[in-house]
Amino acid sequence: MRQSSYNQRTVSKTASLQGVGLHSGAKVTLTLRPAPAGHGIVFVRTDLPRPVSIPALADYVVDTSLATTLGRDGVRVGTVEHFMSALAGLGIDNVRVELDGPEVPIMDGSAAPFAALIQDAGIRELDAPKELLVIRKPVSVVDGDKQASLTPSKHFRISCTIDFEHPVIQGQAFDLDFSDRDFSREISRARTFGFLRDVEKLKKLGLARGGSLENAIVVDEVSILNPDGLRFPDEFVRHKILDAIGDVSLFGRPVIGHMTAYKTGHALNHKLVRKVLSDPSCYEIVPARRRELEGLDLGFTGMAGALELEPLVA
């Protein structure tokens, strides 16, 4: 029997992990709690005299200089992108995320520990269809030689290219047709990276206090400093895709469109998200019920959270 809808997801039970903040260097505990349909992803700072809730939405982005930071009423939650990427990669729409500090723990610098936490908590389907954000016309943003765009597509796809004047990195490109299986296998384990010269500067400014070879790929002028090397030959561009998935998840809904990214970072990713949201003619919100999707000819069967939905047929 065919499913009638592509439903929202939450976690089945409470689960926690502990790590250090990349910039603060302080220990922080992150706890996932189940949430009802329509709740969305909401961060809650529990270390304050009165807990402050911050929805994981583009309207709450307050800084993109070193990572993606959300804020509300002067309270911040930093470095959310890897965690958000894991939620998107496993199709989680609703969860209460409690933090006892100002920053999501960096863990190993990838999304894999967060994906493992979600899987440990279990994934539960809710009795309400997802709402999809369907791109209806091309949208692009440019910053010098950097560019990002979203164009209409039958599913979510990301094509990313990077170009660094460094002998280890150089030019790399990767194309991902987004699904939970492909995210876990191809993207989730890709770690963040940085240049030794920049790390030293940041530490002098009191930042990157929690940064180490245990949670980032670090390169000097000619080589990779991590003793175990890379997890993928093109781990650098794969991590850029991981970041982009986390950043576009701040639409608050799964995206149906093709994202093309050339030398992008958090700032340009969010500029693209805000430009789409600023023009309602660029997108349509569609409930993921079979009858609506059949009429729109959307092919999303491999997407994260599709729950093995059968191919759409006339």
UniProtKB/TrEMBL annotation:
Pfam families: LpxC
Annotated metabolic or biological route of this protein: Glycolipid biosynthesis; lipid IV(A) biosynthesis; lipid IV(A) from (3R)-3-hydroxytetradecanoyl-[acyl-carrier-protein] and UDP-N-acetyl-alpha-D-glucosamine: step 2/6
Keywords, in A-Z order: Hydrolase, Lipid A biosynthesis, Lipid biosynthesis, Lipid metabolism, Metal-binding, Zinc
Catalysed transformations (reactions): a UDP-3-O-[(3R)-3-hydroxyacyl]-N-acetyl-alpha-D-glucosamine + H2O = a UDP-3-O-[(3R)-3-hydroxyacyl]-alpha-D-glucosamine + acetate
Family matches, as InterPro entries: Ribosomal_Su5_D2-typ_SF, UDP-acyl_GlcNac_deAcase, UDP-acyl_GlcNac_deAcase_C, UDP-acyl_N-AcGlcN_deAcase_N
UniProt cofactor(s): Zn(2+)
Molecular function terms, GO-annotated: metal ion binding; UDP-3-O-acyl-N-acetylglucosamine deacetylase activity
Enzyme active site: H266
Binding site for Zn(2+): H82, H239, D243
Cellular compartments per GO CC: membrane
GO biological process entries: lipid A biosynthetic process
Function comment: Catalyzes the hydrolysis of UDP-3-O-myristoyl-N-acetylglucosamine to form UDP-3-O-myristoylglucosamine and acetate, the committed step in lipid A biosynthesis.
Protein name as it appears in the record: UDP-3-O-acyl-N-acetylglucosamine deacetylase
